Amino acid sequence: MAAIDHYINTIIDQGAHEAHTDGSATIEAHHLLLAIAAERETTTHQVLTSVGLHHRAIRDALNREFEHSLSAAGVSRAAFDLPQPSSAPQRPSQLGASVKLALERGFASVARKKDLQPAHLLLGILQAEVGTVPRALALAGIDQADLKARVLRTLTDAGE
Length: 160
Description:
Elements: H1 3-22, H2 29-38, H3 43-50, H4 55-72, H5 97-107, H6 118-126, H7 132-139, H8 144-159
Helix pairs in contact: 1-2, 2-4, 3-8, 4-7, 5-6, 6-8
């Protein structure tokens, strides 16, 4: 198994754990982003932490995004005693649409599988223009263009 296969399997497995903790039936892109942040020995983790996006900060941003989405529907989380999500009965194994699109976007620019790097997966997640991840990053005040540029620089530096 190639190193990239091992990395992707690890991130998807950790993403499944994140989804299970959230009570989600599918693994979505924000679960993979959390998994990448939890994977401490990678360049992608370093890129995220360079802009203050460690695992806890991403989780907090996702929570703010959830509260913001509720408020857009006229629901105040503070006004109700909403229970914490319960873990799903089984660990999800299905990839959601946002993960499938992130994989397609991230790997589209690579001609050969042997050229794939972990940063391609992160780039695919960050290239989403709509959805949970871009909303959460915007609410956290992250300069998403700068973050994508940092990821692209790691790909360029690794290719030299």
